[in-house]
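Usage

Read records sequentially. Each one opens with the input sequence:
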Amino acid sequence: MSGREIHAPHTVEEHDGQVHETHPAFAVVSVTRSSGTSRSLFQSDLRHQETITLSISEAERIRDLNHDRVHPTKELIQIEMSLAQWGAVVSSMGLGSGVPVTLRRREGIAHVSGLPHLPRIQKNLDEVNGAVTKLLDKAAATYAVLAEAIEGKKGVRAIKDALRTHGFSLAHARNNTEFAVTSLAEAAEFVVGQARADIEAHVLTAQRLTGQAPPIESTVLDSPTEISSISVDQPHQNER
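and closes with the structure output:
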């Protein structure tokens, strides 16, 4: 890259002939899949027993017996992801602003504090409840003004104004409620997608541990014509 300084690796040759090389640009990345107690992850509404951990460490290269061996040294960062988040990382390369992950360790901090379990869908539920309550209160208030205008015989113009205001409040309530409910539905669909990824992972793990392969589906024949078109070779009888 233009403007970047270039430095050769720092080399140390040991008495046994091994050559150790280090450089600020040497690094290794490892991806592991782990299971354990349920834990909360950033931007995930579920507790996850199976997660993907990605770790990046500084590296050392050792030349010995005409072969290179690369070893991790100091870990720089470790992140944890749900299976759905890992799938998003792999499939959304170059798209969007990035995938949320949970920082577990980084240089200088051996253990980043854990997250409380606060599902974001609850935030959507609270917002829907607040929006509906606010809109119903507004509609009740405009209805009270309309009822007072009618019962107090304040005249046709006052009744029309109160009726118009009440109509606006009802229309406003419908539009805003639809928006809040749509947001809730999108959040629920996102949670379902997260759960589906975890369930599929549990099924595959169970199949691997038990040695059970997924069932093989046979071809489905839709009509009797398809069945009659299949010929079965009969064994030939020996000619006398």
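Summary fields computed downstream for this record:
- The chain has four helices and five strands.
- Helices lie at 83-91, 120-151, 156-210, 224-228.
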